[in-house]
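Tutorial, part two.
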Amino acid sequence: MPLVPTPGSPEELEAFARLQARLPGLYRRVDNDDRVEHTVVVVPSLSLDPQELAKISGVHHYEERLLYNLMLLRRPRTRVIFVTSQALRPTVIDYYLHLLTGVPTSHARNRLHLFDCADASQQPLTAKILARPRLLHRLRRRIGDPGRAHMICFNSTPLERTLAVQLGIPLYANDPALADLGTKSGNREVFREAGVPFPDGFERLRDADDIAGALAELKRRHPELRRAVVKLNEGFSGEGNALFHFDADLPADAPNLAARVRARLGELRFEARGETLERYLGKFREMGGVVEQFVEGEGKRSPSCQCRVNAVGQAQPISTHDQVLGGPSGQVFEGATFPADAAYRAEVQEAGLRVARVLARRGVIGRFAVDFVSVPRADGGWDHHAIEINLRKGGTTHPFLTLRFLTDGRYDPATGEFLSLTEKPKYYFASDTLQHPAYVGLLPRDLIDIAVYHGLHFHSTTERGVVFHLLGALSEFGKLGLVCIGDNPKMARFLYKKCVSVLDEEVGIGARAVR
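Running the prediction step on this input gives:
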């Protein structure tokens, strides 16, 4: 085994910088010729706080969300190395490979190399790989020429940096040294620099006293304020948020307001089920967080702009979505519609691009999303409030890339639409959270059989239908994800509702309302 620098050491940082310097040249070669020999190492590790991840049902199956990268096998000289915590079922792999067009399945299968750690623990996948030197050795051998390879991941931490160095290949993701830009506190500072409106509030808070003081000051600034949000710096999918209500007995001019708020922190309403004040405040002391106004308004929406900074430092818009949010106060991500409403998608894209340019100047690379809360005005316009930057791949990444890989189409920034090769606009509705206890026990092969029998399966000729993901979570948790692709928004929604109706009928559930 080659000598490797100690994780986090100056030697490792220097080695990582040298590897990253290779990215622009590799990017240009691959971008200019889709037939160039190239290896993509996919490490879909959710290297996030384990207690926050534990709030998400079936989260260890979320590694499967990056299986859309198997679509890269349409490039005839591209190899994909996909590493997971546990072995993926052959049915799941076959499902994705059969979505490929223009390439025989056997040809693609020969260029796909699957590795797993045989480890179902809650440790991040990247940590599992690093703890297995023989697996690392096999990965290096399979990579072959490191000058023609790069690694991609769900989110980038010091773990991914160490793995990239030990594999000897660059990481097409954000430098972990810049991770603070992706925290809730870092988000607010980026919004401020970009000149993008965001809710009034306070960042870099450390404990319960800070929370109480910030809530009290917000109330003094905005006497009419009814609700405020407390957010963990590294909360995930809205599950790290809590809501504080200012009741009538907490007016802005109340004496000792901060102390009175401090005594009422037990009334925080958490988005995550089963969360407790003690546990939440302990996590807040560990990672810090923010307090900010809760954006009120009738008819408000939650659009999102996806951007990327490519390997040569160019900030680019990728897509816009209208998010579907749930949870006690509507802060938990459940799904998304592409594209965002035409009434404001251009405004959201422009604001997101301003944020992307700031991040590009700071040295960020890779994909990320900027989330907004948008409130309609009396004059017919919209006020947009930036609330979060997901400095990683997220819930809107894999649906959009699934559409792009399946259709070979392109995003048109001028209209905010996605056009197929025939210049036909395509739309979708996507969700990671279709779940019901009655679905428990359905195997991936059962789902595929149901979809084909009922005509739900995606057809490459019509470029319409449903693409499933999170198949591994179905039998154990009764949960799956899906991307419903249609020729207009109504068709995409219809496909989703039909899919729910069909699945419910198959497992004996009566009719239910579907949003």
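The two ends are 54 Å apart (CA to CA). In part three we will examine how such features are distributed along the chain.
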